[in-house]
Amino acid sequence: MPPRKMNSAAKTDDSLEWANPNMMEFIQLKMRTFVAAADADDHLDFMKHHGEAVKEITGRSTASLKAGADGGVHVDSLNLAVRLLTGCGAAKDVDGALELLLFVAPILPDELPQQRRAPRGVEARANSVLSAAWMDIATREMPKHMDMDALRRAAKFANSAAALGFVPPVVLFVAKRLAELGARSAAEWEARLGVPYDSRYGEFEHMWEAFDRRVEEMEAELKAQGKKVAKRPTSYCCAAPGCGITATKKAALLRCSGGCPAETKAHYCSKECQTADWKRHKPACRPRKGETAATVDPGLNAETRPAPDPGRPIVDGLVNDGKERSIVIDDPSMAGGKLTISSRTMGPAALRNIRDAVEKISLS
What we know:
By secondary structure, the chain is mostly helical. It has a domain at about 235-364. It has 14 helices and 6 strands. Strand 5 and strand 6 form a beta hairpin. The longest helix has 27 residues, at about 205-230.
């Protein structure tokens, strides 16, 4: 049967701008649950995904999705649930979203006649969204409390998604969190948490297999990238403390033309960062007699960030030079706790503003 008809009309969210927290949540949820981790690779072109999100929300009204969901259309139920979970394009309604998702991905799908089941890809994505929703419920009172029942539900739906051959970032994140809690061993679980082990965690074999496979892949990728960066570590990240802009190719950054040695040559994402960092970098670039860059440049890897400018547009500084720039965001919802966003059309200032906005949402 289709889910119950929702009495309340969908409330349209008029703001589809970057700074709108609901839009950010919408993009993050889609990235966590709709894209296979192997394709997403924790690497997000924000301009592309924002454009797709705006097109999706404006191209199909919430009222139209609701009509489809009321009529039992699985994909409409899934897409409406994403809007209800994030409040983007509709008023937030977590309970309503969960009901829609369970219609698409029921607890016992094999008991349904094949003609009544959702298409495989739709069912898999509904399972991944259910996993994300229950993981958010499980951790919303952290660090004071974790809802263990919700955590197990998150794992169950993550396993169901993986069983259907779909492994988005949320599946890996749930597995990683459980591994950190000791869920792969009864002895480790009870030693860490002081509560009896739930043997059902060991039964989520599809989730664990996907997690182990991805860990091996990431270790190989990090090793290869590490060898490349180790040759010239300062060539791939902006030297300005707290900036955070990185590049996969040296040509994307500006090279200091001063006298600093080649092995520690400073590179910058913009003239603004180079100017702001000159006071700190000058002694290393033009050391006095008897000094070296190593002795006068202790702040090269400082983590202090400049304070964000609340009055600056979040995507201020679009560029068309074709250079790909990236920035790493602390995002607990991703498998590695980090999310890299990249763009060939956003300048350094825009990327930093996106980082600050996403981290603010992740911490709220």
